Please model this.
Amino acid sequence: MDLFLAILALLLSVVGIIGCIVPALPGNVLSYIGLLLVACTGYAEIDTASLVLWFVLTLLVIAADFYLPAWMTRRFGGSRAGAVGATVGVFAGIFLFPPFGILLGPFFGAVLGELTHDRRDASRALRSGFGSFLAFVVGTGLKLLVALWLFGVVIAAVWPAFTNWIGTIL
Model:
């Protein structure tokens, strides 16, 4: 059973890393579930304080992912229309222009949102688009950082068990 949990934890961690880039997958949540699965094995030495710390970090990254785009769009002079456009742009970019659409979608969505709000202020629309793009890059970077770190913790916890298992096979 421990081997099954370890393999499932590794798979969830890898899918979690992918989920940090693909918005349809809850990347950090999957990575954290992988950590929980490893903690349930008999050989993992992951204490409760570490589990709580990673849970809090996962929640903080999820919260940042929700609030950062709107905050950065407005911080760069955008309106609610720009924030909504950036959100729509993320999803439209994924489906219409993969893989580059995920990077460019928020920018163009925010710019178009601002231009529908006020056609006369193109510089404001561009600033808003840049803020949205920057928020996407920062948010994705934070999610990837946490997911990669969780993957490292899972690998470190699972590695001794895999080397023992391979030793018994060979």
Notes: Residues 2-169 form one domain.
